[in-house]
Amino acid sequence: MITRLYTGDDGHSHFEELDMDTGPFAWGELKTAAGVMFRQSEKGRFSDWHTAPRTQFVITLVGEMEIGLPDGTLRRFGPGDVLLADDTTGKGHTTRDVGDIGRITAYIPLE
Is residue 104 within 8 Å of 42, Cβ to Cβ? Predict the structure, then answer.
């Protein structure tokens, strides 16, 4: 399952689950990407309200993050979870690294 984080008509970020059988992509086909980037962050890091800098897959490899939405929703993502960050406008979301260890994440920007 892949979770999409997107900007709704209300200008706020929302989550939706993407069905890999009928979702917005032909999942079994090669996607065009700008590259891949890996980042490591310390446990407890917090990023206040921000939007995704571009549409990108965010794959947690080690550790956990918690994303907060303007409506108060909090959602955790751990190793193996795939997020399609697509909320490039609006108020955005918060991100907090949670758990006892730092986080290592792969970012794959889509063209």
Answer: no
